[in-house]
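B., you asked whether I could sanity-check this one before it goes into the benchmark set. Here's the sequence:
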Amino acid sequence: FPHPEREQLKARLMLQVYRLIKDRGLTQAKAGAILGNKQPHVSGLTRGESGNFSVERLMEFLTALNQDVEIIIRPRANSDGAGHISVLAVQ
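And here's what the prediction gave me:
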């Protein structure tokens, strides 16, 4: 992947969307209605096909599923190298 950090971020966000859909017992059609997507796209999402969704769109899915998404920007503790992006899911 040309941007592995971005793909990892997308994978973590997709995992949270998948868990919410599964935990709520939603069908793909019902999840699609909530997310504003068609069932085939939800099917791809639940199979881990991240190519169709941007990070922003995945965050929109999370908010549609009644989740708060917070972005915190802070200086890197160690000034060596570039910063990183992480996802912390609180249950």
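One thing to flag: The chain has a mean pLDDT of 88. Otherwise nothing jumped out at me.
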